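Good morning C.,

I know you're traveling, so I'll keep this short. The sequence:
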Amino acid sequence: MDPASQDINLNSPNKGLVVDQSDSLSDVPVEGAVGNSANPLPPGLTEEEAEELRTELTKVEEEINTLRQVLSAKERHATDLKRKLGLSPLNELRQNLTKSWQDVQTSNAYLSASATLDDITHSEAYKKTQETLSQAGQKTSAALTTVGTAITRRLGDMRNSATFKSFEDKMGNLKYKVVGPRGNGDVVSSPTDTTPTQENPPF
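The tokens, ready to paste straight into the viewer:
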């Protein structure tokens, strides 16, 4: 049985069977064929060599298609096996990321950068900068605490001043005039009011 005459399409119902090539379309003109003057032969290539190369190209393209189909079938089979084993794409991604991170941590670039960073953190300039920033933070915190204390004391002094007390009394009188005696939670009804008062009005 000649391998060239076998049907190698894996999805074909005639897989592995001999194909009759007596009804081939070899006498039908094809665009771009040898006899076509639009696509002349490259210089130094005979008609026989060109035909041989075309035949080889056809075989290679058929092999490529077969390999693609086999690869696709293998990938489907691998996916089914992973599904049966309970391996999800998320688990695979997690494993790949973990392995990649481990590879990064053991790489020369990472180790070199880590060593450089250690050298920097143990240098005198780094220590001095860290101390300076720490002192600046402590001084800023102390200053803000002092300012807060001063403001609190100032507001307390202001509240105890005669001017503020006079202002507070005037505001109390104004509130009494606007709201009336119920300003502190007492409900007082007017003598002319005939509607019962609601304890919790709807608005």
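Safe travels,
E.
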